Amino acid sequence: MSSHFSGRLGLQQRVLPNYRVPFFDLLARSCDGGMSLFAGLPRQVEEITSGKLQIANYATAKNIHLFSGPLYLCYQRGFVDWLSNWNPDVLIVEANPRYLATPSAAKWMHARGRKVIGWGLGAPQPSLSPPHFQRKWGGSKGGAWSRFVHQFDALIAYSQRGADQYAALGFPRERIFVAPNAVSPRPLSPIPSRSLKVERLAILFVGRLQARKRIDFLLRACAELNQNVRLMIVGDGPERQNLESLAKQVYPSAEFIGAKHGNELKPFFTEADLFVLPGTGGLAVQEAMSYGLPVIVAKGDGTQEDLVRESNGWQIPSDDYAALVNAMRNALSDVRRLRRMGQESYRIVSEEINLEKMVEVFVQALNSLY
Questions:
Q1: Fewer CB atoms near the end CB (10 Å): N or C, the chain?
Q2: What is the DSSP code string of 286-297?
């Protein structure tokens, strides 16, 4: 299997978040004909930090944001002009029907005999979507979702769940590729050594301090466990003051470290025994696993299912406080098992889910069409 794509790649994204830069630059390095990314700016309320590419070419889209919440739509002005200038052999786009310029871009490519790949989370179950979205985007074969995905020549799913959803719409399985969502490279350092005899186990959270992260649950759970647990909360955000006030009431020993980045995070990952993300989001889980940590994460869009398994952690329903307490109590009850699960976390991100593996799948999908 070739590790390079010999053609010229165009890739569309709504925005360019900072955490995606390493992946896009690594993918660009694998494209012999070069790669250009077309992306615009986020809305201010999204608090997304935009990145800067080092290898891939970057073309700025004019994002026109329409409506908000479940009605949100985005039109990217200049999409076809960028295609005309860059002239890619293959185009990869976000497989999201809320992005209104995608059909015209796909038609432009197909009119010139070129291929288009959709990259997405899958096709959401209609019952989990807003009512107006259910009516328009019913998930059955022949429905709007099915017609939407069939404009693509291949699909790349973030997870196996997403791939199964695309296949359920009648898209050929042989043209569906699974590239598990990765934000960290393969670990280069060996797994940290941790003792089986620990007087005080350490729990770590890393991320933005936002209400949806449910750090309030984590503070209350530590108090309910009635164990001498060290809780390290690394990050900053709009909820910090509220959380510090809550901690004084329920778990005064909680440590609010503040925002740390890059190598500044290493001592906290090394000192921890368990990594916990009780709410939605959480890009740090893969980095935690690269330090040999078992993890507790809230279920989300399906990407967690490939990453967090019974062998290396616990998945809990989001907004389920009792499930969080039970998982933490279970995790901390057996240090020997905790260490085995940490070793499995390290193996998963070393061998299966990392930036290098993600790029390999993208190159495989590209070469299957070109």
A1: N
A2: HHHHHTT--EEE
Contact 315, 299 (CB under 8 A): yes
Topology classification of domain 202-351: Rossmann fold (3.40.50)
Assign domain 9-182+354-369 to its CATH architecture. Answer: 3-Layer(aba) Sandwich (3.40)
Please name the residue that has the structure tokens 């997403």: 162
Q: Where are the domains of the chain?
A: 9-182+354-369, 202-351
The answer to whether 149 and 166 have CB atoms below 8 angstroms apart is: yes
Q: How far apart are CA 264 and CA 269, in angstroms?
A: 10
Question: Structure tokens of 245?
Answer: 């006030």
Q: Which of 258, 201, 254 is nearest to 232 (CA)?
A: 254
Q: What is the pLDDT of residues 245-257, one digit of tens each?
A: 999 999 999 999 9
Pairs from 159-162 (Cβ < 8 Å, separation ≥ 24): 159/121, 159/122, 159/301, 159/302, 159/303, 159/305, 159/306, 160/302, 160/305, 160/306, 161/122, 161/302, 161/305, 162/120, 162/121, 162/122, 162/123, 162/302
Question: What pTM was estimated for this model as a whole?
Answer: 0.92
pLDDT tops 70 at residue 129: no
Nearest Cα neighbor of 278 from 356, 359, 193, 211 is 211
Distances (CA, A) of 122 to 58, 59, 92, 95, 119: 26, 26, 15, 8, 9
Whether residue 293 contacts residue 273, with contact meaning beta carbons closer than 8 Å, is answered with yes
Residue 235: name the closest of 201, 275, 199 by CA: 275
What does the mean pLDDT of the chain come to? 93
The alpha-carbon radius of gyration of the chain (Å, integer) is: 22
For residues 184-221, one letter each, b for 16 or more C-beta atoms within 10 angstroms of the residue's C-beta and e for the rest, the string is bbebeeebeebeeeeeebbbbbbbbbbeebbbbbbbbb
